[in-house]
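Preliminary data (for renewal application), iron/sulfur cluster complex.
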Amino acid sequence: MDVREQLTGHLTWLAELGIDGVSRDPAWRRVPADDAATASRPAGAVPGGGRGEAAAGALASIRADLGDCTRCKLHRLGRRQIVFGVGSPGARLMFIGEAPGRDEDVQGIPFVGRAGQLLTKMIEAIGMTRDEVYIANVIKCRPPENRNPEPDEVASCEPFLFRQVEAIGPVVIVALGTFAAQTLLETQDTISRLRGRVYHYGGAQLVPTFHPAYLLRSPERKRDAWEDLKLAKSLLDQAAAAAAPGS
Ligand code: SF4
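Predicted structure:
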């Protein structure tokens, strides 16, 4: 693919998001301190330095505790494998969705189907990569026919997500869709009511937005999702600036 095709594809995606202009604000292009660290990181090093290495150990311990989990009925309703999570243990930004779908169940990685490809584009649209963030779901096994998780399944599985969040210690969490937002915020409000504001979860700031699968069905909401992602990015940048020496 030549540069012109790449540029056309990128601009088409931005247009799909509802972005009708490009900011000339230099702050938007500034590479945060953590991103600069990422660029110069030696091969094999864990992002986030010592904190990332500790988080990697904690995540491995949580995965070991989960084992070949049979704590809820989803283990005997057709799952192929547990889909634990993927990304940087030292991530400052964490995405949390609902449950694995068919593609995720096959590959064992969250958000790899069509919705996952959209999520990847959303991450790249704010100048980041999947390797820099951490992605997980509330539920680790695929519900049959992609039905909604049931309360007993959530009760059995959510403690492992809460431990993942505690291990990673993200600065910002983006809750993808009604289900994740309701679980983390302990509310019954819909995502349409919840989005557009910043909440707190543990030590993190939480930004709810639409699930990418919903955005595929309702592309007119991509503009709202883009606003939410810009909000999440601005929170990350503010935190990085506040933590910078001399600030
Ligand atoms: S959904 Fe969670 S609690 Fe249920 S079997 Fe899978 S890993 Fe265990």
